[in-house]
Amino acid sequence: MVCSNCQNFVSDKEYNYSIDNFEKVLCRECQGKYTNLKNKHTKRKKKSTPEAQKIYEILLKNGFDAKLEQWDGFKHIDIAIPDYMVNIEIDGKQHQNNKQALADLKRTYYSFKKGYVTLRIPNELVQENIFETAKYIMKFLKESESQLNKELEDGLSLMKKQIKAVSAIIENNHKILLIQRAKDPWKGMWGTPGGKIEKGESETDAIIREISEELSVKFIPIKEIKKYYYEDENHVCVTTVFLGKIEGNIKTKEDEIADLKWLSPKEALDLPLASTNKQRLLA
Q1: Do both 9 and 104 map to the same domain?
Q2: Rounded to two decimals, what is the model's pTM?
Q3: Which domain does 135 fall in, by range?
């Protein structure tokens, strides 16, 4: 087992402590660093305005990995959403004077240079219409994600052949279903079940078909978790990972799947894992 931060070896004792206290795999040294950062974040969070905290909490409840009072190397951002390259500043009346407006412009420029878009939202708007405000922020984030994915895919397709794939995290009693591939390109390696998306097929239809073909069961998607990117010398693979459950008794084809196991993420990390499966298990 390795630390999700520095990739150093993690003992069983360190693993259990980090999962219980930090919900991620961390070595002892990184646990200390994480604790210090968490304490600093807690102090900064206390300085957040009520309006920023309300928007932050709504974003979290809707599945957005928002960061409150995130330090970007130049300033603290009221709310940062790194996955979407978006910063949100909740501005009070003090931002209406010329001096503060110029400072805000400089901060926005700094974020823009790093590829971030900054949304500036007045306190009064949040106070008077918080849910409508949050609704349009989330619409903006979803549109931002769509454009980022398109730009990335367009850029990658110019350089290497792109493969689109799907995979499923199937859980049962805190165990995850892993399969061992029986043929190339990942022969002998372990990972979550799935495969390539066929032409004209949606991601959801693809994962349902793949699980049916590989395991002879019905897959019921619960939600899309994340897209993972893997590349070698000639290809770039974009894998969309779904969380879901299955109905029926598993039956595998020996020419495709050599073995399968229900394992905890900790146990699975001891196996030779294919592609981005390690990142999925550490997430």
Answers
A1: no
A2: 0.47
A3: 48-151
